[in-house]
Design goal:
This protein is of the alpha/beta class and about 300 residues long. The protein has 2 domains: about 1-210, 3-Layer(aba) Sandwich (Rossmann fold), CATH 3.40.50.300; about 220-280, Alpha-Beta Plaits, CATH 3.30.70. About 35% of the residues lie in helices and about 25% in strands. The chain is built from 12 helices and 13 strands. Strands 5-6-7-3-8-9 form a 6-stranded mixed sheet, with helices on both faces. It is elongated and about 75 Å long. The structure holds adenosine-5'-triphosphate (ATP). Adenosine-5'-triphosphate binds near residues 11, 14, 34 and 41.
């Protein structure tokens, strides 16, 4: 389990992480999301003892990283694709890591196989593609068979097969009881990988909830109602405080209400209903709504139209 307690970090006058408190549970993949500069990497670096908190604590299984006896047996992480020395061979890099953490040398072959790098084990790291370096980083993270995994943007540089592979790896590790904490910018990827989300903006917690709840809370969820008595139902819904619009096709679009609310009001009026359906927001929409007020960098109109 990972626990952040009022975690705070400043770089000069810039507050990168601001009083962040959250518990990341075992047995789940928890997605760590936030706009550019929100403080995700800094948080992960503090968890791994690579940056020191100014106040608060970042704990893995109840301890700061520096207090872990053989860290690679407790936590495996990929926060940087610069791994090992370019002149070193992949297998000897892993062997060095294993030795320094009292991990049996036999694990090197096991993890190289797990990440699909058996053939490349004798190659020098400097000859590796970005995708191969990502896989080697993940091999290092898995070496001590840890119960906590921390990945910062792990799909960067991976091809389509690699993306599916890492998704299945994270799901399998969580299903086996591991705590998997992963940052990503790809909402579609998070939607198919994560169970739970921690969203931050400007270093502060914005949401700590299941993906289903994050989407359910979105103001962009809407209900479509088709009825011959649209005007009457629209008036009743407005009275009940539900924002309602009449669409070009003559149906009503209702927000801020559940299917039960809308069905109940229509039933109370004895109206005939031809369609009553819920249109859920995507995770991307719900996320954009949550983080719109904490963007550090807003693209100009020209950049938006160019992309
Ligand atoms: N070593 C550093 N020195 C000075 N400022 C830093 C340093 N590391 C991070 N920052 C600043 O702290 C803030 C948080 O950065 P961080 O990299 O943690 O965000 P992030 O959420 O990981 O962003 P991204 O999604 O763009 O990778 C940013 O404003 C960044 O410029």
């Amino acid at each position: 389990m990972i626990v952040l307690e009022d975690l705070t970090k400043d770089f000069g006058r810039k507050r990168a992480v601001d009083g962040l408190s959250v518990a990341i549970e075992a047995g789940k993949v928890t997605g760590f999301l936030g706009p550019n500069g929100a403080g995700k990497t800094t948080t992960m670096r503090m968890l791994l003892g690579l940056d020191t908190p100014d106040s608060g604590a970042a704990l893995i299984n109840g301890k700061p990283y520096a207090a872990l006896h053989t860290p690679l047996r407790t936590v495996g992480a990929v926060v940087d694709s610069r791994i090992g020395h370019p002149g070193q061979r992949a297998a000897s890099h892993l062997l060095g890591l294993a030795r320094s953490n009292s991990i049996p040398a036999s694990r090197v072959g096991t993890v190289l196989e797990e990440v699909g790098l058996v053939e490349a084990g004798h190659q020098r790291i400097g000859t590796f593609s970005l995708g191969m370096r990502q896989r080697l980083g993940i091999a290092g993270a898995l070496l001590g068979d840890p119960q906590v995994l921390i990945f910062d943007e792990p799909v960067n540089g991976l091809d389509a097969d690699g993306v599916v592979w890492i998704r299945e790896l994270m799901r399998a590790k969580a299903a086996a009881g591991a705590t998997v904490f992963v940052s990503s910018h790809l909402m579609s990827e998070m939607q198919s990988t994560a169970d739970h989300l921690v969203v931050i903006g400007r270093g502060r917690l914005i949401a700590d909830d299941s993906i289903d709840n994050v989407i359910a809370e979105s103001a962009l969820n809407s209900i479509t109602v088709a009825t011959p008595d649209a005007a009457l139902l629209a008036e009743a819904l407005s009275w009940a405080g539900c924002p309602v619009t009449l669409t070009d096709s003559g149906t009503l679009r209702v927000t801020g209400a559940s299917l039960e609310d809308v069905g109940g009001i229509a039933h109370g009026l004895g109206l005939r209903i031809n369609e009553l359906s819920l249109r859920k927001a995507s995770l991307e929409q719900a996320y954009a709504e949550l983080t719109s007020s904490s963007l550090e960098y807003v693209p100009s109109e020209n950049e938006r139209t160019a992309s």
